[in-house]
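User: structure tokens for this one?
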Amino acid sequence: MRNFFKKNHALIIILFFSVFLFLFSVLDVVTPDRDYSETENRPLASAPKITVKNLISGRYSSDYEEYINDQFILRDFWIDTKSYAESLLGKTENNGIVYGDDGYMFEKYYSVNERRIQNNVNFINQFTEKYTPNTTLIVVPNSYEILGNKLPSGLKNVDQQPYIEEIYASLDSAQGLDVSDTLAKHSDQYIYYRTDHHYTTYGAYLVYCEHMKQIGLEPVSLDKFSAHEVEAFYGTHYSKTKYHAAKPDIITYYDIPNKEVSVNNKPVDGMYNTEMFRQRDKYAAFLHGNNSLTVIRSTEENENPTRLLLIKDSFGNEIAPFYAASFDEVYIVDPRYTEIPLSSIMAEIEFDEILILYNFMNFAEDTNIINITY
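Assistant:
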């Protein structure tokens, strides 16, 4: 028997490997496709349709490659294994995310789409030319811009501040509000999540306070609200790396009393979908996720209600409850979702203030801001 294995060593390895590949391929085919990856916190690619146009253009090939990569059997296991192996080898980055001090993770961002930035500024100028209420633009710097003392050495990311200043200088009617200094003064506090690209609720509160001061209103003190903490939050940066030694974040949210909320004209229970705090994508609890239109109204009657329009990306989700404490009605529009055109809202509602709020990296890349002009 020993001689048999010795003589047929190469053949046995080839046979074993062939059987392994066959079984793996069969399992890969019979395993149902998944729509969403809880691990990576994103939708997964579905099987592309075969059309003559897609075949000729080459799109089918690229879409099919993406589909195979997303639906590969035991994908989560292989991602975990890759992350663990790379950390053992001393790698300090994975999938475009670099590891900083104190458990912070930062996205590599080496170039910026200047044309996209200018286009988005132009769309805001078109919007303010059409509508007259007081409009403020806040472009929130991303965490690496503020938390310089946490960055790994040698990280040469885009310097966001000159671009932010240029954005504000290019505005026609809207007022730009630079919050970089305010956030920098609190950089030793928990103002950005470690494992996620968003600022924390306290970071959002600091931005809210600066805006309220700019428009001549008194910000509401946090002491007036009951605070709740949700532990074991692993955000978008962690989803990309699956870093085994990641330090989980804590989400804080506040009860804002006497409010009724609707999402796309349908009533919902409060400003938070608390069920999501028990899921992996805990950030989606704020405002019940990203939606075309969310409206928060005071249940207390007021003959002349104060109204704020918040046009935002996901950085607006944590800050919106604070505005709900300061205004009788807050209308929240996400241009990435266009079920309800903004023009129809502007035709019906008169706003005291309009706030457009984006994080810098999204403002520099988003192709949906044009929707505010419709």
